[in-house]
Design a protein that fits this description.
4-stranded antiparallel sheet, 32% strand, 7-stranded mixed sheet, 251 residues, Rossmann fold, alpha/beta, 2 domains
């Protein structure tokens, strides 16, 4: 590929894409899960918070990925991971299912459900509403749903923050764009092989959510907000907070 064609490829607008083949057996999936080892905070802080605040019993880890959380919780809770990607099935760290969590193939109820590390950002707004309605059927009485995600401010800081990395003779390029008028953050991954040819090109979009928007949604769907903070030290959550953490329960 010549330089002009490559620059045109980098500068193309990123099309919205909210999940699909990129989560299956692809370079994108492997890169994503390999790199996600920590959240916005040290993983130890998050694990300590969950062990202290979750209800004793069972945990359903939706979008479990590389078992970033459930592998640390499995010795204290009965954990089940669920992810649309085949990646978790390559590991036997935690019992897991390969499935789309917007169409849960489960009848069991759980004491706790995790939607961690911005999982809800992979859902468009109506999809999130439908999921939260569905999860009430899978949550035991007095159980908790744990949700954490980056704020729109966090995505704004990543706008046009493009990057490059060389791995195994292949060049990986990331292009990022934020569209505040649509509450969408999109990124595109382009991988060139050793001959400079495009090996794969994938796009992924994230739905952004404001604090007030989520609080209103939880309340309208019949959830109590048991904990809301910008960190694990119970600091007041604000629209300008970089991160949002919630524990919600059924009314």
């Amino acid at each position: 590929m010549n330089l002009t064609k490559f620059l045109n490829l980098l500068n193309e607008d990123i099309e919205d894409s909210f999940g699909g083949n990129e989560w299956k057996d692809s370079p994108f999936s492997d890169d994503f899960f390999h790199n996600i080892k920590e959240s916005f905070f040290p993983i130890s802080s998050e694990i300590e918070f969950l062990k202290k605040n979750l209800k004793p019993g069972s945990v359903l880890d939706l979008g479990c990925g590389n078992f970033r959380l459930s592998k640390h919780l499995n010795n204290q809770f009965d954990c089940l991971g669920l992810d649309f990607s085949f990646y978790p099935l390559k590991s036997k760290l935690v019992s897991c299912l390969c499935a789309d969590y917007s169409k849960l193939p489960l009848k069991k109820r759980f004491d706790n459900i995790l939607l961690s590390f911005g999982q809800i950002c992979f859902l468009q707004k109506k999809e999130l509403e439908n999921l939260l309605i569905q999860l009430k059927k899978h949550l035991k009485k007095n159980g908790f749903i744990y949700i954490d995600l980056p704020s729109p401010n966090n995505f704004q800081d990543l706008n046009n923050f493009n990057s490059f990395e060389k791995k195994s003779q292949k060049n990986h390029f990331w292009v990022r764009q934020y569209f505040p008028q649509r509450d969408i953050f999109s990124q595109k991954q382009i991988i060139l092989n050793e001959n400079g040819e495009v090996q794969s090109q994938l796009s992924l979009s994230y739905q952004t959510y404001a604090v007030s928007e989520l609080i209103l949604l939880f309340q309208n769907l019949g959830y109590n907000i048991e904990y809301s903070s910008e960190n694990y030290e119970n600091s007041n959550i604000k629209e300008t907070s970089p991160w949002m953490i919630f524990l919600i329960s059924k009314k």
